[in-house]
Amino acid sequence: MRAAGPGLWVVIAVIVAAVVSMLVFGSSSSPVGRGSVAPGYSLPGLDSPELHSLSQLDGKVVLVNFWATWCKPCEEEMPAMERLYQELGPAGLELVAISVGEQAEPVRAFRDRLGLTFPILIDADKSAATEWQTFAFPETLLVDRDGMILERYVGPRDWDAPAYVARLRQLLGAPPEAS
Hints:
Shape: globular
Distance between the termini: 79 Å
Structural class: alpha/beta
Number of strands: 7
Order of helices and strands: HEEEHEHEHEEH
Radius of gyration: 19 Å
Helix content: 25-40%
Strand content: 15-25%
């Protein structure tokens, strides 16, 4: 019996990679990124079992943030995210923080300790994170009024920095901040 040549191993590796990709990303493995339609989600809120979905925010500018309580960079960016929400929430910015892989109690303690007021959803089974193809935390996606992804930010950000505030004000149609 003859040993398999290197070409056969390449074919096997490609098949295995395709199967793994289908299992991880589902049948629609189109990349989720700039210019793509934002995937949906249906998740309970932190303080109620009522399900929330992105479609409830149709026509709005939305920052969708994926994070976890064990993630130090997530914790470090949350105060700036709260300040951004306080400043631009009244102008129509929707901010949705999706806690990934955790139950409500540690998330509630985290929220209370940091004094967060923006909506927090629970993705305990990681289904939304998988659908949105997020695996590094924090990861934030900016969704426009038409449900299209404008930006994908991997890693923590200083969300209340002038550049982010100005971009969001422009998307919201809000007047520029007075100097």
